Amino acid sequence: MSVSANAMWTPASRPGIIPLHPLGFGTVLGRSFAALRHNPAVLLGFALGVQFVASFIVLLGTGAVGLLTFRRLETLQFASDDWVTIFLGSTVVTAAVGLLLGLVAGAFQVLVQGVVVSEVASAALAEKHTLRVLWARVRPVAWRLIGYTTMVVVAVILLLALVTTLLVLLGTAIPALAIGLGIVVVLGSIPLSLWLSTKLLLVTSVLVMEHTTIRGAIVRSWQLTRTRFWPILGIVVIIAVIMGTITQLVSMPFSLLGSGLGAIIAPTGDPDSGLVLTLLVTGLLTQAVTLLVSCVSVVVSSTAAAIIYIDCRMRHEGLDIDLLGYLERRDGAAFAGTSVALADPYVPHPDRPHPPRPASVEPWLLPPGAAPYPLLGQPLPGAPGPVHPPQSAPQQTPPHGAPAFPPAPPADRVADPESPWV
Question: Is the pLDDT reported for residue 363 higher than 60?
Answer without folding.
Answer: no
